[in-house]
Amino acid sequence: MALISYMGSPTVIFAANHQRCSINPVTSFKTEKILRIGRNKLMGETVNEKLSFKSSVIAVGVFIGLLWIIELADALFSLDLYRYAVYPRELNGLWGILFAPFIHSTWSHLLANTPSLFVLGTLLLYVYPKSTKIVLPLIHLGSGLGVWLFARSSFHLGASGLTHGLMFFLFVIGVLRRDKQSIAFSLIVFFLYGGMIWGIFPQAPRISFESHFFGAVMGVISAVLLRNYEPFPPYKKYDWEDEP
Q1: Under-70 pLDDT residues of the chain
Q2: Class in CATH terms, 51-225
Q3: Domain segments of the chain: what residues?
């Protein structure tokens, strides 16, 4: 409740819990204007950072298209790109930390990674656009380094380490942030790709579970580090919440 008095110097008197305080309306107006400008600026930055769903789909689609072009070039020109995969504890194998996610052993290998990479990559870009710039390098380089240091002596290649990292990031960050949007997408990701959890354990000899494992580790670490990096959605308060 607010009463305005024009006797003497103008003041605005607020009554709450039987207490009264006087505020100069000129000062109040300036303060409100400053707060409004700051809020609009913050919201503007948030809007600019936010990608549309269509833009997210296109960006991930272009990246996946690049992977298919690389595989096609490898098949047509017999490039033997597997040589640029991660080979643990060999100096030449260090190049694989950069290049391994872009190389696949067979068409079926690439085809198996494409749907999950498309869905998880799109969700990452759309829901956590600011974090994407940090999450992708962390998972990409961190998982590759882990494989180079600790994995079995063989060529490790493919984007499955990246997909496992994205799945674990999207799930864990939703649990940590606990806002409605993050939880919703966390549940969707777990419903679609929760089976990836088993991929971090040893399976068939030709499957690099190490890539999956270190991708998952980097995804969890990224989620912990960046849980408050994105702006939280505005909290909606309903009338019934004030009822005793």
Answers
A1: 1-50, 235-244
A2: mainly alpha
A3: 2-47, 51-225
